Amino acid sequence: MLPPFLPSADAASRLTALLDSAMDAIVSIDEAGRIVMYNRAAEQTFGWSASEMLGQPLERLMPERFRAGHASHVRQFASTGVTARLKGSKGGGEGVVLWGRRADGSEFPMDASISQIDTGHGKLFSVIIRDVTDRVKARQDLARFATEAAAIREQEKSRVARELHDELAQSLTALKMDAVWVRQHLAAAGTPSPALSAKIEGMLALLDDSVAATRRIAADLRPLVLDDLGLAPAIEWLVQSFSQRHGVPCHLDIDESLALGEPHATAVFRIVQESLNNVAKHAHAHQAWVRVVREAGDCGAPASGVPVDCIVLQVRDDGVGFDQAAARQPQSLGLIGLRERAQLLEGQVRIDSVPGAGTTVEARLPLPIEPVPAPGVRP
Question: Are 152 and 144 a contacting pair, CB within 8 Å?
Answer without folding.
Answer: no
